[in-house]
Every structure is written in structure tokens, then in C-alpha cells.
Give the backbone structure.
Amino acid sequence: MNKWLILIIDDEPQIRKLLQINLESNDYKVIQAATGNEGISLCASHTPDLVLLDIGLPDKSGQEVLIELREWYQNPIIMLSVLDGEKEIITALDHGATDYLTKPFRAGELLARIRSAIKRNITTVNTKSIICGDLEIDLVSRIIKKNNELLKLTSTEYNLLALFAKNEGKVLTHQYILREIWGIGYQTETQYLRVFVGTLRKKIESDYTNPFHIITESGVGYRFQ
Amino acid sequence: MNKWLILIIDDEPQIRKLLQINLESNDYKVIQAATGNEGISLCASHTPDLVLLDIGLPDKSGQEVLIELREWYQNPIIMLSVLDGEKEIITALDHGATDYLTKPFRAGELLARIRSAIKRNITTVNTKSIICGDLEIDLVSRIIKKNNELLKLTSTEYNLLALFAKNEGKVLTHQYILREIWGIGYQTETQYLRVFVGTLRKKIESDYTNPFHIITESGVGYRFQ
DNA sequence: AACTTTCTTTATAAAATCTTTATATCTCTT
DNA sequence: AAGAGATATAAAGATTTTATAAAGAAAGTT
């Protein structure tokens, strides 16, 4: 099997060295960048399987790098931050960070997080399109088809449907959905969800008064099938 | 395979002897204690796979021993009691006893209870989905299937069934169930429980007038199998 | 700036679920 | 076999949760 490729973006050479030794002795291939811009171009040229990104960088903040990367880069990005960076961590997760680690970290924890992130990535993101009965969801091009006809969804509607589709058959709680789609802090806005489930149903269900795809689990959440 | 280790805590030497012979001839290893305090320290030093604990002990009551053990000891504890100890049994179950046997007991029953308690202990801890005959309970996705068909349960019904399934074979007292599902303060609302056991039976039992899964233990509670 | 689209709120109707009450059935003891 | 206590079932009432429409706010486009 080919080795997984990991890109480290961090300005401190000692940390880079430490990470490199740890990762290479665990059979990962490593490339490094000391600045945000360098990191972005390395990421573009090598498309690593995972990125370790420091929040505190000299040229542009880790947050900005994260946002830029997420415009086109799908693989896991784990943020590295100093302790007490609570707020930064939350914004990072909001912007699509996969996970985070606070420095100083134990090698075991780092490796565990990396393993789990990569594993999750190959099982979920790697499926490029999902087909559920008359629905076809292309996760790369963000195109939804129903009986081969193109559906026009808004961004939020699409995100919601994609989340459902990735968790087909599983009950998703209101809280979980709200956190995933709207972000932390929206977990009580259950009414948003009701409205959007309503519009989604009108678009994807053959008979929206008697929904087949999006099932209500009263008191808990919704289930997609 | 290593033999299972069983600790007997009972003040009557004849009973200890009887139990020892029975258990050892069935391939269990046995250690004994004649008093509660001795039992607790033996349990701490040997961490047996199961404890047989007499309710009537000279130094401290079996109930006290049970409570002390349950602060740190996770494995099954089967209580031994004389007949007509109904109340004591219920308090014992409330305090985390796994099962009970009334003396005098048949050897076959004793062994069956021990087998089932040990089996349950090694299988149900940390399992994500539980299969009981025609029922399949997925604790992660909150999905219940009967003969592979999806069952629609309300939130409370699901919680109740999940609680039962996690304690398969074990008698759960009304109090305990009410505390777990509805919370502290609802422990006297036995009628709630009756109504919900009724609706659950209608959904999961093949013949709900003659329930197989949810067994009534009159005066005590229910047992799921 | 005017217009379109999308998102957020608010209000209300409808549905589902939970609680309570009443009554029937069962079980155990005397 | 009668009576007490415990359990089961049905059904009405109360409450909570969900669905839907529609108005107001925000964002994006031309």
C-alpha cells in the first residue's frame, strides 16, 4: 500500500521536526511548510491526504489558510493550537476544520486523531455520489437529480440534503443537524430546521404530505432513507 | 480458557460448601468469605468475575456490602436470600444487584443464572447494537428492526426498549426503570410504565397477549429477554 | 438602486405523544 | 372461592412537537 501523505504547516521548526519524526516512524510520508502561503501552494501541488495546520502563523492566520484551503481541498484538516484558544477552535471547526489538537500534545493522541480522520474521510467523502431510490446526489458537483431531472436547491437546502444522505438510515438529532449545518450556537433554533425540511420535502418528495425520504422522528430528529 | 472466578460471601459454612462443590464441578474457580468485610477485601484483591452475596450477614447487612461494592465493582452481583425477603430483594436490585436467588435453590437454576449474568456482562458492555431473537436494536442510529422490518417507536418507547435491551435477562424494578427513563421524582408513577410496556408489547411482541420479550415479574418489575 | 433570491422570524393549524382516569383482568393469600 | 393487591388495556384529556404559510430582513445580482 502507498503511504499516506501528510502536510505540516507550522512556523516553528522544532514542532515540524517533532511531528515529522513521529509521523515517519509510523509510516506516513511528510511534507512541510513554514508559512501559510507556502502551505497552500504545497497543498495544491501535492494534494496530501491530511493537513496539520497551526493556528498561529506569521504571514496569514491559520484561519485564513483554512478558509482558502476549504474552497477546494476536501481532505481532513487538523488544527494545532495553543491552550486556551477556545474561540479560535470553534471558528476553525465552523470553517470546516476536521479536528483540533492543543499543544503540547501526546504522540499517541496525535496519531489516533490522524488515523480516525483519514479513516472517516475515505469512508464518507470518497463516495462521490449517493443514490437513494429516485434521488441522485453528486457530492462533488453539488448536483441533485430526481428521476434524472435536475433539482434546483439553495445552498442550505443542499447542505442539509447532503448531510442526510451521508447518514442514510440513521436518526440525526435536531441538535446535531443544526450544529453541522448552521454551526455551534444554533443548536436551539429547531424552527430553522422545520422550515428547511419543509422546503426540501416539497422539492424531493413525490408526495410531500406523506414523505418517504425524510422521516420525522418526533421528539428526536429526522431520518433519511 | 481461564476459569471464571466466583466469590461467595455467606456466613453459613454449609451453604458455602454446597455452593463450592456445585461451582467447582462446573469448572468455576471459587473463593469464599464468611463476613461482609472479608468479602469486600477479597473482592478488591481478586476482582472475581461474579459475586454471590448473601443478604443476611452477621457484621454488616448484605445491602451495605452491595452498596460499598457497587462504588467500584462492575461485574455481576447475585444476591442470595431466604424466602419472603421480597422487600430486601427489591432494594438490592435498586442498588445495582444483577439478579437474586431465594434459598433453598436448585443447582440448575443457580448455574443458569450465573452463566447468563457472566455472558451478559461480557457481551452487552460497549456493544453498539443488540440482537435478541427477532429483534435488532441499533443503539447508535436509534433504529429498531423486527424480522428485518423497521419498527416505528416514539422516543419514550425507544428509550424504554433500549434500557431493557442493555439489561437483557436482568430483572429491572419499577423504581429503577422510572428513575432511568423519566428521572428522579417519577419513581412512584408505576402506571406510566404499565401503559408504555403495553404499547411496546403491541409493537415488538408477535403475540402481545402472551409476551415473550418483556416478562412481568409481579411485585418487582420487568425482565427482558 | 431596484430586483431577485435566500434566510430568519412569527403565527397558527395539525399531528403526535404523553398523562390521567376508569375499568377489566390476573395473581396470590387466606 | 373470595377478596386484596397488582397488572393490563382502552380511551379521553392535556401537552408537546411538528408542519406550513407568510411576512420581514439580509444578501446577492444586474
